[in-house]
Structure formats: C-alpha cells, structure tokens
Amino acid sequence: MKILNLYAGIGGNRKLWGDDHEITAVELNPKIASIYQDFFPQDNVVVGDAHQYLLDHFKEFDFIWSSPPCPSHSKINKLFTAGRGKNPIKYPDMKLYEEILLLQNYANQDKQKWCIENVISFYKPLIAPHEVDSHYYWSNFYIRPKTKKSREHYGGEEKLGERKGFNISNYSGINKIKTLRNCVEPEVGLHIFNEAFKSEVQSLF
Predict the structure, then answer these.
(1) Dist. CA 2–CA 62, nearest whole Å
(2) What is the mean pLDDT of residues 105-131?
(3) Mean pLDDT computed over every residue of the chain
(4) pLDDT value for 203
(5) Which neighbouring-strand residues pair with 44?
(6) Cα–Cα distance for residue pair 149/117, rounded to 1 Å
(7) pLDDT above 70 (res 5)
(8) Average pLDDT over residues 115-135
C-alpha cells in the first residue's frame, strides 16, 4: 500500500506498521524529520507543510494518517490560558477540521482509508470522533475501543523513551520531552492501522 503519514514527528504511530508498505512521512521540523529518517530509513521523508501536502497529494494514497497540531484544542492549554493566565488566548487552529472535511468529502471512501488524530478538546467536538486511549480519532472506518494503558505522559526522557520505544538521547537541538510526548502510542497506531483494513468495515459517518 501507499501510506501518507502527516505531522510525522519521530514516528510513534508508524513504529509498528512494519516495512512492507511504501510510506511517505511529512514533518516540518528538519531536525525531527532527520530523526524519523534514522528510525525508518526506508520511508520517503518530506520536510514541509503537512497541511498543504495533504491538499496537494491526498488522492495518491491508500491510507492517510494525520496528527495536526493539538495545543490550541487541548484542555491543558485552556487551563494555562483562562485558568492560570500564563499563555495568551488564541483561536483554535481549525486546520484540524479543514482536514476532516477535506477527507470526508473528497477522498475516495471505497478505496482510501484515513484517520485524523488529536487530543480530547476543551469544547464539544464539531464533528463526532472516536475516542481511543484518551485521544480523539476521526476516520472513515469503525475503530473498536482499546483497553487504556498508562501513557506515563509526564515521565522524564528515559521513562518516556522506554514507553514509546525510542531512544533519542544522542540527538540534540530538539525538546526531547515534548518530542516524546507528541508521539502517538505505537500500540494505538497499530490498533488503528489494523482496524482500517479489517474485512468488514463500518463507516463512522
């Protein structure tokens, strides 16, 4: 299959997908993209704007995964703006919903599978998602619930690296804790990948 992995980070969601597919990963930060390439040397890594890449290329892929930036949607961010007043209040980044609407309406629903991941928002979602492992997922296939495990989200670099399966101790020039926290749990990434290609597929929409 041809797979598009957007906002790829260092590849948490992709980690357990194996190497039998043609995977294109798009990541804006060149240092993080370089780390991804080290972990997945067979993937085609594009340093660029994932949002624009999706618009330009979505018709070319069998499976699309997107993890748009989440801070402006998160409950934690609201806590640190309205609650504690440390961060400036900003509009939620609506690229999330732009991508959902694009794929809902323009992807080939019979031939393409897609999934968009984000945090549980501080507001009621404008489009109903699945909830898996304390995150939201929008897709054109049914995603069965998955037993929640501790994400150890606030552990240190070593603990987070062990949990996510990435050792980035030898890299510099990045926020390692943030990079690891941004990783989708590899087990969840595999669960959703498998759900997309079950023999019986149910549409959420």
Answers:
(1) 5
(2) 95
(3) 90
(4) 44
(5) 24
(6) 18
(7) yes
(8) 92
**pLDDT, tens digit, 9 for 90 and up, residues 62-72:** 999 999 998 88
Rounded to whole angstroms, how far apart are CA atoms 182 and 138?
18
172, two tokens: 């510099």
Fold of the 2-148+185-196 domain:
Rossmann fold (3.40.50)
Closest CA to 34 of 47, 21, 24: 47
What is this structure's pTM? 0.91
Rounded Cα distance, 49 and 59, in Å? 17
Q: Would you kindly state where each structural domain of the chain is located, as residue ranges?
A: 2-148+185-196
As a whole number of Å, the CA-based R_g of the chain is 17
Report the C-alpha gap between 146 and 72 in whole angstroms: 26
Strand 22-27 relative to strand 2-6, pairing:
parallel
